[in-house]
Amino acid sequence: MNETADSSCEGYYKVKDDIQLLKELKVNHYLLSISWPRIMPTGIKSMVGISLTSAWGEPVDLTSQKDIEAAERYVQFYLGWFANPIYSGDYPEVMKNYVDKKSVQQGLGTSRLPTFSVQEKSYIKGTSDFLGLSHFTTRYIIQKNYSALKGPSYHTDRDLAELVDPKWPDPGSKWLYSVPWGFRRLLNFIKTQYGNPLIYVTENGVSEKLQCTQLCDEWRIEYLKGYINEMLKAINDGVNVKGYTVWSLLDKFEWNKGYSERFGLYHVDFKKGNKPRYPKASVHYYKMIISANGFPNPREVKSWHQKAIETCSITNQLLAADPLTTHMEMVTEIVVPTVFTLCILISAILLMFLLRKRN
């Protein structure tokens, strides 16, 4: 959870319930964010790493050197901006060259990209014991020149344009397309670029359409199957992936999209005070992947899919009947107190009338 859980999905107050969900899901790890300096101000002797987010950039034309270089810039500006200093001691050369060039064209005396001193390079290089990687999607990249007169901008500094294939599935967020093969290529890029560091995939998942209450999330099953399979291929390529965490266990508050984008394996009813959780089909499917530690054979994997849909169909029926419970809650929480208050007011008015009549 990267948000304040007690104000969104009630994670602070439902921690025991959510731990039980994790146990049923059979996961052996869970990613959360807390303020470690408050708990351990002197630190601990353990591994320290950084978690970065990156998409993959694929050249539109594999025979075009300009497109190939543009796709390289896309990843270097995205991932290399922060990863390169940690693993190599400095910003990517292509990033320095392009920002320097744009800065000169804009009439600046120095580059907008800070310069590391020798001491700073020595200090930062090698400071991460592992790389946490958040990955969700891929883009096609082409070369596109931008005038420096447009002003300083991360996007115009790169001199490239991002495209998508209209055939790519886009089940949820407008920016998120399901392109599993890009995951394997990004992991192999990290292996080659940074000396095959230890990698923990900290976030990987897909959202769903606005206000969707469909628990039979077949698109999420397909997404997880594709991306996890490509990650396993990367491991066979020799990439040092140590762990994988799906994003996310629960529906929650997603940045500027609020509650309208749902990434959770469990559906959360935010309209209710106790924020009940309902398992989606992907819960059963992901549980089977964990139990098998991968994909054993096509026939068995197909049976997982069928069982997951059967399970969510039952839960959907329960959720469909839930409005009755909501109405009962409304009667209990709103109607009953209102009627009680009206009775008191009517009684008070009658009492005043009787007293006045007696006088």
From TrEMBL:
Annotated signal peptide: none
Catalytic residue list: E203 (nucleophile)
Matching Pfam families: Glyco_hydro_1
GO molecular-function terms, A-Z: hydrolase activity, hydrolyzing O-glycosyl compounds
PROSITE patterns assigned: GLYCOSYL_HYDROL_F1_1
Gene Ontology biological-process entries: carbohydrate metabolic process
Keyword annotations from UniProtKB, A to Z: Membrane, Transmembrane, Transmembrane helix
Source organism, top-level taxon: Eukaryota
Transmembrane feature ranges: 334-355
UniProt-listed PANTHER family: GLYCOSYL HYDROLASE (PTHR10353), LACTASE-LIKE PROTEIN (PTHR10353:SF336)
Family per similarity comment: Belongs to the glycosyl hydrolase 1 family.
Protein name according to UniProt: Lactase-like protein
Organism expressing this protein natively: Chelonia mydas (Green sea-turtle)
